[in-house]
Amino acid sequence: MKNSQTDSLEQNRIFEYDEIPEGWVLKSFMDVFDIEGGTQPPKSTFVYEPQPNHVRLLQIRDFGERPHPTFIRDNKKIKKCIESDILIGRYGASVGRICTGMKGAYNVALAKVIIPNEIDRKFVFFLLQSDLFQKPILVIERSAQNGFNKGDLERIYLPIPPFAEQQRIVTCIEALLANVNIARDRLKKVPVIMKKFRQAVLAAACSGRLTEEWREENPEIKSAKIWIEKTGKKSINLQPNLLIPEYLPNLPISWDFCNVGVISQFIGSGITPKGGKEVYISEGIPFIRSQNVYPDGIRLDDIVFVSEKMHKEMKRTHVFPNDVLLNITGASIGRCTCVPEKFFEANVNQHVCIIRVVSEFLPQYLSIFLNSPLGQKQIFDSQGGVTRQGLNYNQLRAIILPLPPFAEQNEIVRRVNALFVRVDSIERDVAAAAKRTEALTQAVLGKAFHGELMINDSKENSSQ
Length: 464
Hints:
Elements: E1 2-4, E2 19-21, E3 25-28, H1 29-32, E4 34-37, E5 54-58, E6 71-73, E7 80-81, E8 86-89, E9 98-100, E10 104-106, E11 110-114, H2 121-129, H3 131-138, H4 150-154, E12 157-160, H5 163-205, H6 212-217, H7 224-231, E13 256-259, E14 264-269, E15 285-288, E16 293-294, E17 297-298, E18 304-306, H8 308-313, E19 318-319, E20 324-327, E21 336-338, E22 346-348, E23 352-357, H9 363-371, H10 373-382, H11 393-398, E24 400-403, H12 406-448, H13 452-463
Parallel strand pairs: 5-10, 15-22
Antiparallel strand pairs: 1-2, 3-12, 4-11, 5-6, 7-10, 8-9, 8-11, 13-24, 14-23, 15-18, 16-17, 19-22, 20-21, 20-23
């Protein structure tokens, strides 16, 4: 049985909730609750270790995966909360975020919900996470600096059931969301597993394990040593002899070790265009920066362009199909990709190195190696960790890689690509499943606050 209260409600309310279950009431947020804004002490008073007579200053980030504990001196002026209090994010991307479970002083980006005793706190926690509150709070037309105020909350109407019904709803939601959370936690682990699997594939590819059966089926394939001897290529390691690090694998008999310099005909990086960022244009020749280079390819969503004239002036920075691009400075050092064959002309900046290999070697295999644990270790060992900011050309040329015969390089590239296509498909499925779990959470909350979960529960209880 439903009843309607729409005729008695103000016409300017934000969210339409036409019908409510019998015994429930539909009230403005401010008719039931109140809010108390936080305080913002000067940053000069912050300390980052617990101190006597200090309290934790709670900020939005403290309720996430990367908290940054901050403490301020305790006094009567600051606004405080306890673990059971419910806070609402007030500004920017965090507007409407519901936080709870921490004790301390909360800052101005948060507002504490003042809840009367006749309302169950857990009920409020779930209610404010539902679309009944989230949708109207997110459409409030107000700048990120100002956030929402009490007048905005007056226009949001929420369904309030009797206290006993609130408790039954909470019990039902917790039981259902427990299963949703289990699924969500399992899905979060999949990307980590897939990342480890990718690294395992790359390691197997560069040690010969990935193509072990293939070699048995193709015994006629000539050794890589023959190519090195035929071309007269010699190691150009900075040391007199090619010293193989202990962590590099024992190779199949048809493989050999060589330096990156042995299989390269050109190694060079780009430059900063004259005029800096001012020369970037909306259309023209792509200008590839370190943020565009990833193991899975060149990402164009953040690409910038330079003019044809500028492109011609930077001849040594021209990128061609099958070039290997490697980030050699900054936080993304070591990220590497191979330019696809259908890629048009482009330039790179000083943070990206171009490696152009000889025709007897597959650039895709070099990219696989440089992205592998074996290649990454040498890259980071060469650039000296945090003490140095980049990789120079001599260090790059000296990197030692396992060299398979050309035919086996082809097979390695084919197998790695095939496996990664499957991994990409799994990751897409997992991302879609994660979205479904979020939608399922809202579906549970939606049914709960329309009285549907409790109606079903009542029917089940009455039939027993």
